[in-house]
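The data are quoted verbatim here:
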Amino acid sequence: MIDQNTNDWNYHLVNYYFVYDIMQEILRTPIFHQVEEDALIWRAEKNGQYSVKSAYHLCVDNIADDSHLHGCDSIWRLKVPLKVKNLLWRVCRGYLRTRARLLDKGVNCTSLCGFSDEKYEDMTHVLFDCPRARNL
């Protein structure tokens, strides 16, 4: 579509392949005659080199909404046993192993509570609603 001698649109070729309206739009499109050498640049790194690690950090920093997780950082500074910190961290992140979470992960199991057999076992039920779990 570009004439190699003049570095401009090849009018006859564009006219041959396209209808008049499209041809006019193509011919109005400017062609930059001073083309610099192409280069791949990854702006997430100072050296311009792509890495999976830098792409991950870019996604976490700019795309993922992790504002709900910032309260979890202070859990590790608490002066309580490690197992309590671990439980709080799992609750904060939504990693508590409930039957609802297992079903979400594709595990074939019932969704009912193991203690009461009548309630849907999610994090709220295990932590607040189930009397047997509260006693534990």
Summary: The first strand starts at residue 2 and ends at 3. DSSP finds seven helices and two strands in the chain.
